[in-house]
Write a structure and sequence with these properties.
Length: about 140
């Protein structure tokens, strides 16, 4: 418990920034997802890939230049590659979660999408913090 408390004390500003950007990115992702599934009647899995990909580019820029400010010695192309790998893992996880909730549990798509957001945010924060934008000690 001490480690968790220490982590939050040391990283509270970064966590707040991540939350703000996360809310913006989640809004971008969710609105695009709704547009494709509800207006254009595109299958949820394709809509998820499109919306998540669009939000990823937005997220990278804000994460690199505001939230984490990244390791300066790592080229932007390497950071973007790491960022994309993290988001790829997150997207695959959310696609699997959507499949479980929509196809197996027969939940509504919008409710499932709302629930699965937490999984994506958790994977992204850990990946960004400790790999894509890690700071050397």
């Amino acid at each position: 418990m001490k480690r968790v408390t220490h982590f939050f004390k040391q990283n509270h500003r970064e966590l707040i920034k991540f939350g703000v950007i996360g809310a913006l990115n989640t809004s971008v992702d969710f609105l695009i997802f709704l547009l494709f599934t509800q207006v254009f009647a595109v299958h949820y899995s394709i809509s998820q890939v499109i919306s998540y990909s669009m939000a990823t580019v937005h997220s990278f820029l804000w994460s690199k230049f505001w939230t984490f400010k990244g390791e300066k010695k790592i080229p932007t192309t390497h950071q973007f590659a790491r960022f994309c790998v993290t988001n790829g893992i997150s997207m695959l996880s959310t696609l699997f979660g959507l499949f479980v909730l929509v196809d197996l549990a027969h939940m509504k798509v919008v409710v499932s999408k709302s629930m699965i957001i937490v999984l994506g945010l958790t994977i992204n924060y850990v990946g960004y913090k400790f790999w894509a934008f890690r700071q050397k000690p």
